[in-house]
Each structure stands twice: as C-alpha cells, then as structure tokens.
Amino acid sequence: MASVASARYGKENVRVHKVERDPTTGVQTVTEMTVCVLLEGEIETSYTQGDNSVVVATDSIKNTIYIKAKEHPVTPPELFASTVGTHFIQTYPHITTANVKIVTHRWARMTIDGKPHPHSFYRDGNETRKVETVVTRGEGINIRSGIAGLLVLKSTGSQFHGFVRDEYTTLPETWDRILSTDVDCTWSWEAFPTLDAVKENAPKFDKAFEDARNITMKTFAEESSPSVQNVMFKMGKSILEAAPLVKVVDYSLPNKHYFEIDLSWHRGLKNTGKDAEVYAPQSSPNGLIQVSVTRPEITSKL
Ligand SMILES: O=c1[nH]c(=O)c2[nH]c(=O)[nH]c2[nH]1
C-alpha cells in the first residue's frame, strides 16, 4: 500500500517581459521576470487514480501568468505574486494553496549624453530580486522577499582572529584581509490577511528592497568586521529596524577566499602580510555562513 504524503505541481521557468508605455512622456519601462507557480490541494487522485478532472493543466497555469501580467501591475513583485496566487485559490475550490516564486532580472535604464534614455536598457549585473509567496485559503498570504547574486568585495577593512586554535588549525590570524561574498538575503513579512492588505502595503515592498540593498552594501563597506558572522548580524538588525512589518531576516553568505601568494622564492620578492598585492582568488572550497535574525520575544507584562 502507498499513499500521497504531499504533492504540488505547476509551471516553472515561465519567462515574462512587460513593457509599460507612458503616452504623455514617451518614456517606457520594462520588467522582466521568471515565474514559478506550484499548486496544492485535493489533487491526490490525479497521482493515485489517474484522475485528471482535478488537474488545472500546467499549460493553463502558464497562460494565466501571462494574462494576469497583462491585466495587473507586475510591480512590486510581491503584489503580482499575491495577485496570481489569489486567483488560483479563488477560481478552483479544490486548490487550497498556491506557491508563487518570482525572480526579477535587472534592466537598468541607459544614460545617453547625460540623460536617462526613454526606452533603452542594459543588464548591470547578475543580481536579482526574488519573491516567494504562499497564498493559502483561510490563512492569508505569506511573503518572503530578497536579493540574490549581489557580488561584493572589499580589499581591506576585514579581520579574522581569536578563533579556536588546536591541532586542526593552520589558518593564521589576520587583522587585514580581502572579504568577498555573493549576497543572498531574504526577509519574511508578517502574514497579510487578504490581497487588499498586500495592495495597501504595496509601497513598503520597494522601500524594503532598496533599504535592504543599501544597508547590506553600506554595512559591508563601512564595518571593519571581525568576521562574516558579525557583519551579517548587523545587516539583519538594521533591516529589521528599517522595515517594521518584517519579522525575520535571513542571510546566506559564502566567504569567497583570496589567498596571499608567497613569492619570496623568486629573488626574495615580498608579497605577504603588509606587502601583499597579488592574490589568488579561490573558486572552491568556500566558507558558508548563515543566520536568521529576528526580533526579541515581546515578554508579556501581565
Ligand atoms: O569571517 C569568517 N568567519 C569564519 O567562520 C571563518 N572561518 C575561516 O576559516 N575564515 C573565516 N572568516
């Protein structure tokens, strides 16, 4: 005997590009995203009995994403994901949860002769804005927003010393090193009861994204950090202070090592410690440091 423990299905890698045109100014704005929608509900019989009467075809799911992109704003992505997810639970009574993920790709407006160009853009990096929305009938809308692929490096202003030294340790302590990481930062919002509540709060999503991005870069640049652990905690704390509706901030930061190269074997060339100039970037292995930063429990005064 076997039974379905859990199941979800849908369409992923749905690529959507929307052009919005302002007829008065002639300025056009583009949004490009990759969408994934996975549905859950009373769909077990499609797996166990071959009963397709409970299946909304993944092709129809893809069509729905295009139609919703035509009919509704696609920004902020938190709102578009909530719009799409709410559609599925409202339209199909046997669908109880819609999981909607959106990755928004960068198209930065070109500056030509010092002026923003009305309809030309360029890809200014691999960084993406990501949103994961879970819309569940009777439970509201849970949203996680984030930044991925923001590659940063500082050539000084990072230290790592005082760590455990024992018979497994070879790493020297350092008071000055290169620090580089590929930022993956996610912030989770308090649950929204309805799509209208998401709409009312829509401006907060773009603000939180800009704040999180600026805080991440400013803290990285300005903190003379004793470790990745300490700098990422400071980033998370500042994001919680900037976004009152955010309840948890998660960071996952690879420590992309740059090794000094000892060149003293060549005519006594000095290239270590304070003389280090030429480094060997390491592709693997890398450190991986993660944290979830939350607000302290509010203790009851009763
Ligand atoms: O910031 C760091 N944290 C660590 O935990 C660690 N471990 C290590 O080898 N280098 C570093 N750097």
From TrEMBL:
The active site is at residues 11, 58, 257. It is an enzyme of class 1 (oxidoreductase). It is found in: Peroxisome. One of its GO terms (cellular component) is peroxisome. Pfam families: Uricase. It catalyses: urate + O2 + H2O = 5-hydroxyisourate + H2O2. Catalyzes the oxidation of uric acid to 5-hydroxyisourate, which is further processed to form (S)-allantoin. PANTHER family: URICASE. This is Uricase. It comes from Venustampulla echinocandica. The lineage of its organism: Eukaryota, Fungi, Dikarya, Ascomycota, Pezizomycotina.
